[in-house]
From TrEMBL:
<protein>
    <submittedName>
        <fullName>Regulator of cell morphogenesis and NO signaling</fullName>
    </submittedName>
</protein>
<dbReference type="Pfam" id="PF04405">
    <property type="entry name" value="ScdA_N"/>
</dbReference>
<dbReference type="InterPro" id="IPR012312">
    <property type="entry name" value="Hemerythrin-like"/>
</dbReference>
<keyword id="KW-0963">Cytoplasm</keyword>
<dbReference type="InterPro" id="IPR019903">
    <property type="entry name" value="RIC_family"/>
</dbReference>
<feature type="domain" description="Hemerythrin-like">
    <location>
        <begin position="84"/>
        <end position="230"/>
    </location>
</feature>
<keyword id="KW-0479">Metal-binding</keyword>
<dbReference type="Pfam" id="PF01814">
    <property type="entry name" value="Hemerythrin"/>
</dbReference>
<keyword id="KW-0408">Iron</keyword>
Amino acid sequence: MSTFTAEHTPAHIVKIFPKASDLFKENQIDFCCGGDRLLKETFAKNNLDETAVLSKLNTAYESWKKEDHHVTDWDTVPLTELVDHIIYNHHIYLTEELPALGEFVTKVFRKHGSDQPHLKELHRLYHDFKVEMEEHTMKEEQEVFPLVKEYEINPSEALLQEIREANGELEEEHDATGDMLKRMRVITDGFQPHAHACGSYQITYARLAELEENTFQHIHLENNVLFKRL
């Protein structure tokens, strides 16, 4: 592909050009939960300059193609390999990061919440997100992913239907957690700490930005690759 257009979806573009996710986040273009919507629909909804965004996107893509990149075609790898990749690169990350980052969010709220009211909402949002993702990943690992692996070995229509029903519930949960992350980005001004923020404040925002990146990639792989293949 040489040029992306407004007729492409963000999910399709990120599969081909993973770095596009950075540009999409900057412009609040959903590439995971709502990744199947045509770009032109998002341009109209968000009042974005279509020409400017596409120009920046395609310029970045042309530069990126000249570099040495290996992009895994997740549409073709075995389902078990895809599931294991999600667990080891996203679920384990959440298991380790959510409790540790929660301590930072709470610390910053206690120290600065009295004169920065948005930190109260951030504290609530983060901990709602934490609980939701802990329960969500547990459901995937204990209930859904074993079914996917079994289906790859012994496919049947009954098993496929069971997986599809479970995936519908998971996608609804993705929408909810995706909305939480989007709201966190808004109230933190894109995870940008103020000029005189202390070290803990800066670390908290940096790790929230990393959490957002990892989670959006996580949801993208499930919604737009794994679930679609099933």
